[in-house]
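Might I ask for a little of your time on a matter of protein folding? The record follows directly beneath this note:
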Amino acid sequence: MKREKRDFAKGFSTVNIDVSLKLAYGVGESSTSCDNSSNSYGSSCAFGSGTGSEIVPIKELKSRLWAFNLKHVGQIFVDVNYFRLKVLQYSIETGYKYQFLKNDLERVTVYCAKRKSTSCLWRVHVIYEFDSFVIKTMHSKHFCGFVCKDVNSYLMSSKLVENLILEIVRGMPLVKPRDLMTTFKTDYRLDIIYYYVYTAKKMALEEIHASHHEFFTCAEKLKKYGGLPVQRFLTDIRLENWANAYFRGYGEMCSTLAECFNAWITKERFLPITPMLFGIMKKMMEMSWNRLEESMKWNSVLCPKMEIVLASKVPCYVLQLHSLMLPFKLGVFVFGIMYS
């Protein structure tokens, strides 16, 4: 009997099974973390690969707080679009899909997409109240099983991407869509198609700098309503407030100096006003620091160039003073030396 069991066991071979752990949301509010003292989502440690039970730190995602966008009854949202954006972020981060029961400018009701199949009770209802939207009723727990974050979520839209990259585009208008896709991959762990990023960047630039169509529309309105009202408006304003010729210092800058300065800020000159000022400030601080380090190497009070000039002038000046002041029996102090 023992021999038969041994022969039966020899018929099996050892199989290595690699288990990939993904952080998932379960029933209720429970979650798993490497730290036993923390039950919040966004663990800062993970098991390494290939070296046993080695624990290595992982990068904290910027989207980890999206799971807590919907907090409690009475939470206030500035408008209905902001609430829809928060629900969309919550769904992308947690993996729970949702549907609208009511969706208008006065009230919005969302519920779990698996409500019919699993009788999940998750539901949020907001109403318009006192110039804002307030959560009136809410059931925050899911009973439809475990889900994982989908890195290729179909819920991603150009509007959401624009909301996330608006400040990046404001600081770096020339950023490429490919670089933004890499940013989403590293900071949010989301794979976004090129079309969404390209469209979102275009929308962000229009929101920051307005569009050409809007410019020409305003120009036509100015032509239509201009004439005498505009003339009266400009007449009541001081010339130095709107005419270049009356600005202080207008026309006094040397073109060579301007070209030299523009060459010094080649990259910064195309940025918006705030990043451009910070870039110029950084260059000036670096220049001052380099000059300070260079001056620390000097052994004289003045810079070497001026010391040479001073050394060539001082002897003649001392002799002249000595000859003039000799009848009065007075001396001259030069660098702590008494000449009499």
Summary: The first strand starts at residue 24 and ends at 25. The chain is about 45% helix and 15% strand. Residues 158-209 form one domain. Confidence is low (pLDDT under 50) at residues 12-50, 324-340.
